[in-house]
Amino acid sequence: MKGLSLCAMKHSYWWVCIYCVAFSCASIAATEEPRVLKIYHDSDYSNHYASALAMKMGLATALAQVNNQVQGYQLQIVEKNHRGNSNRSFLHMRQYLNDPDALAVLGGLHSPPYIKYREYINERGVLLLVPWAAGSPITRYPKAENWVFRLSIDDSKAGYTLVEHAKQSLHCKNMQLLLENTPWGKSNEKTMRAAMGPNSMAGVTWFNWNTQYASARIIIRDIVQSEADCILFVGNAPEGKHFVNAMASLEGVDKLPIISHWGITGGAFFPAVKESLNRGLILHFIQSCFSLRDYQYHTFAKEVVTLAQRLFPEHLEFPERLAAPTGFVHSYDLGKLLLQGLQQVTVSNDMVSNRKQLRAVLERLDNSVVGLIKTYKNPFSVWSSDNQDAHEALGKDDVCMAKYEHDGGVTLLPRRDKVVGNEAVND
């Protein structure tokens, strides 16, 4: 009995050893799993796929320059398709807040979700980085702890650029506003009215999302028959293509030039209006002052685009023809600012702390950051009523006008008062 007990004890001892080794190996394997920092991309991958894809590619290219890693954490982009629906965007914000790996949200093309839920974003601490949506209220939450940072066109200034171009370059004297009936359209109305003054506006026409060609043609015919000599348009690609084609279709009348916000470049717009533009219709639209059409002339830009081509060869065979090019440019530059911010924080597994640290650091970035549009020096600061542009990385001097070329590429129109492009990377 004594021998049997000893044998049984030895047998049990070996099983305990095997169990401990297995458990230890499993524990080591678990600790060696890569830690992740997620960046949600809240965008319309359904109706405005061109813009969503361009933004994703721009951010991915910036992250690839640091091998998608920072402080031992793997950086990961997570597509979140809101389909142009503000409530779906809100759902993504809630998912973000409950995700222990989610660091930030990269916004999309549409302004309404971020205007509608601005208080929720700031009160709950959703770190929102905006590379496209231009609605002026988005970054102007009236408290010092502001969680939204934008590197994009800002409608508090865009309207002035559109009006200035209409007057100086196209000699318009009676401008008709053609605006989508959303908070984005309404914010632009205020800016454009202020920019035009009392004697330059022919009128305002509102349209809804999903306006089709037949309705667009009636609206355009009424505008042409008014005193208007040009149209200032604020809308997106699905409706914009119908208004452009409607203008081109009118016979026996002078075609009014259309000066547009950049929303038209966010979807499958150019193929739908190519024939209309070939008939001589003037369509100019606002862009930031860097064009992928010029990338080969800038050493830094060429390096960025070459990397992007390796990452996305099926989409960037001809970078100068990329649809929604500023989505790529803005997201790349914003990604560089994000990476600079991450260098100034100590990342941990406490994601709430990471978000808070990063929000504060973005307002006081230590070093200059070279981007495609320009070199950024202290692009953000603490918001106050006396510092309305605190969370705007771009200003009026960074905004240009552009047009489509015959191949669908975007060419910037010259500005007499500005050297276009990042002077720091032109050598």
UniProtKB/TrEMBL annotation:
InterPro entries: BCAA_transport (IPR051010), Leu-bd (IPR028081), Peripla_BP_I (IPR028082). PANTHER family: LEUCINE-SPECIFIC-BINDING PROTEIN, PERIPLASMIC BINDING PROTEIN OF ABC TRANSPORTER FOR NATURAL AMINO ACIDS. It comes from the Bacteria. This is Leucine-binding protein domain-containing protein. It comes from Pseudoalteromonas byunsanensis. It holds the Pfam family Peripla_BP_6. Belongs to the leucine-binding protein family. Keywords: Membrane, Signal, Transmembrane, Transmembrane helix. Residues 52-252 form the Leucine-binding protein domain. The chain crosses the membrane at residues 12-30.
